[in-house]
Amino acid sequence: MKASSQTTLRDTVTLAGNGVHSGKPVRLTIHPAEVNHGIVFLRTGLANGRERLIEARHVAVSATELCTRIGESESGAVATIEHLMSALAGLGIDNVLIEVDGPEVPILDGSAALFVEAFDRVGIVSQPAPRRYVKVLRPVRVQQGRAFAELTPRDKGFRLDVEIDFDTPVIGRQRKIVDLSAAVYRREIASARTFGFMRDVERLWKAGFALGASLENTVAIGEDRILNEEGLRHPDEFVRHKLLDAIGDLALSGLPLIGSYRSYCGGHRLNFMVLDALFADRANYAIVESEPRREPRHAEIASGIAVPAYAPDIH
C-alpha cells in the first residue's frame, strides 16, 4: 500500500468552555506542529506560573474513572481528553500542540462535533513526511467480569466493533461496527453526546464528578425516558458515543492503529488496559508505513439544553 503523509492544522484553533467534571472554565488553544511531533498537551496555569508538557500516550494515563486523564495532579494533569483525542484521530490529524489552562478539556456540547467543526474551519494540511502506524500482529484481550476489550490483527485500516448492554429499556443492548475514516467519523460518530443517569447525580457530585454536567452537554436518562427536550441525535446515540470514546482512548497508542478493536460493556479503563497489553510485548505489534490517505468532509452538529451525570464506565 502507498504510504500517506502526516498532517497538522493549517492554523491555530481556540475553544473555551467548562469542564464537565470540575465545572471550571478552561481555554483550549490547539497549535499546528512539525512532523513527528505527535499530540502533546501543554498544561498551563499551574501554581507559581509553571507549565508542563504531557505527551498524549498511554504511558501518561493516571486515571480512567468516568474520563481519561494524563499527567499527575501534583505536577500537572489534563482530564477528559477523550473527545478531543477522538476528533483528532477520527480526522487523521497527527501533529498538534494543545495548550490548556485548566485541569480538564472543555466538554462543549458533550460530543466531538465542535472540535471537528473548528478543525474544518482552519483546514488540515499534509506534511512532508510519511505517516507511521501501529500494526497489531497478535491478538490481545483484557477482561473485567463480563466486560472485555480486545485488539486483533487486520491487513488494512482500523475497524471498531463496540457493544453496550445497560439494564434499562431506555438504552438496552446496542452494537455498532465501523471501518474508521474521516468521512465515517464526521457522518456517524462525531455528534454523539455523552450520557448519564439522573439517579447517579448526587453520588457523583459528592465524589467531585459531573459538577459541570447539564442538559446542554449530556444526554440525561431518567427512570424510563430521555430528559432532554430535543431527544436523541441518533436512535443508537449511546453506543455511538462509546465508540467515540474508544477512538479517543485508543489514540493514546501514539500512532494510528491498523487492526480490529472489539469491546463489550467496555469503557475508559478497559480501553487503557488493552493498549497496555498490546505494548507489553514487542511481538504484539510493528511500526509500519502502509495506509492510504483519509479524505476530509463535514460533520453535522447539533446542541442540547440543562442537569445530569455520567454513565458507568463498565455496565
Automatic annotation (TrEMBL):
Top-level EC class as recorded in UniProt: hydrolase
Record-level Gene Ontology MF annotations: metal ion binding; UDP-3-O-acyl-N-acetylglucosamine deacetylase activity
Catalytic activity, EC: 3.5.1.108
Cofactor dependency: Zn(2+)
Record bears the keyword Hydrolase: yes
Superkingdom classification of source: Bacteria
Keywords per UniProt: Hydrolase, Lipid A biosynthesis, Lipid biosynthesis, Lipid metabolism, Metal-binding, Zinc
InterPro entries per UniProt: Ribosomal_Su5_D2-typ_SF (IPR020568), UDP-acyl_GlcNac_deAcase (IPR004463), UDP-acyl_GlcNac_deAcase_C (IPR011334), UDP-acyl_N-AcGlcN_deAcase_N (IPR015870)
Residues forming the catalytic site: H268
Reactions it catalyzes: a UDP-3-O-[(3R)-3-hydroxyacyl]-N-acetyl-alpha-D-glucosamine + H2O = a UDP-3-O-[(3R)-3-hydroxyacyl]-alpha-D-glucosamine + acetate
GO biological process, one term: lipid A biosynthetic process
UniProt record similarity statement: Belongs to the LpxC family.
Stated name of the protein: UDP-3-O-acyl-N-acetylglucosamine deacetylase
Organism: Chelatococcus composti
